[in-house]
Amino acid sequence: MLTVFSADHLLRSPRTELYGGELVRPHESPERAQIVLARIHAQALGEVIAPVKFGMGPLLRVHDPAFVEFLKQAWSDWVAAGNRGEAIPDCWPARRMAQHCPNSIVGKLGYYAMAAETSISQGTWEAAGAAADVALTAASRVKDGAHAAFALCRPPGHHAARDLYGGYCFLNNAAIAAQSLRDGGAARIAILDVDFHHGNGTQDIFYDRADVLYVSLHGDPADAFPYFSGYADEIGTGAGVGFTLNIPMPPGTEFGTWQDALRTALVRIADFRADALVVSLGVDTFVEDPISFFRLQSQDFSTYGRMIRDCGLPTLFVLEGGYAVGDIGVNVVNVLSGFER
Q1: Number of folded domains in the chain?
Q2: At 199, which CATH number?
Q3: How confident is the model over 233-275, as pLDDT tens digits?
Q4: What global pTM score does this model have?
Q5: Catalytically annotated residue among 159, 197, 198, 218
Q6: C-alpha angle 253-255-258 in degrees, rounded to nearest 5
Q7: Which residues contact 264 (CB under 8 A, 6 or more apart)?
Q8: Is residue 188 situated within a structural domain?
Q9: Catalytic site includes residue 63
């Protein structure tokens, strides 16, 4: 399987994450991508190539232009305002407050952030743009006839909405890639999100559309981030009613229950008759993940890779979460090699 990877992900190396009431070393770290890449080489999964640059056009097909401009300028505006630490929001337009974007960079952070754990640091925009190019390059190979490709994206993307960042995500790599496949001639795209956390951003982008099916298996948002998105009664709106399927599961979910949910998801994808499948591949469903509560074992990732293969669809895998860093390479490559067998 072809892998697309950019060393520019190293440009994002934040020092701070708000977690458990403390500023800690971020769970989303450069080591994650490097360990996955090393495992790909060790297992001889296939060729690894650098991305092509696609420019701003594909980003603006799914993200609000003002939001993209904010991301592009946020770090320089933060530094110009005299701030010495990394950029973290501390005020939000909550219920019954005015929904206007302020001039101040502090206000802009709150306006565009969905959560406070994700700091913006030097190199964030450059790394996020490179991740989008990684996804677009891998999607272009699928569009040109490859049966499968892996976009080794960092930072991840599925929490990034049309005009919101957070959950370690800035640009929605999977959504950008899915839209590029639509623009390249595919009539219907299915997105299967197997990350532990609900992909609120991907859902937001396609929620009113019937040409992109979004299916997510995730921790019940009553107990898990992002808390306010991913309930089973969220099924789409307008033309998109029936084209979002959320399958939330409780703490302690074992692979047998998760696998049954995946079977349900794959039946819905088959019924949709998609031209291609985009998989938001988060492996934070692993039993040892520090910020999740499912109980999948490493061998289970191989099993569900084979299940996804049996869909018989051209498939783009896009890396999302997975924070048991020592095991992320094994778990990601188990999915990919399971798919290839």
Answers
A1: 1
A2: 3.40.800.20
A3: 999 999 999 999 999 999 999 999 999 999 999 999 999 999 9
A4: 0.98
A5: 159
A6: 70
A7: 247
A8: yes
A9: no
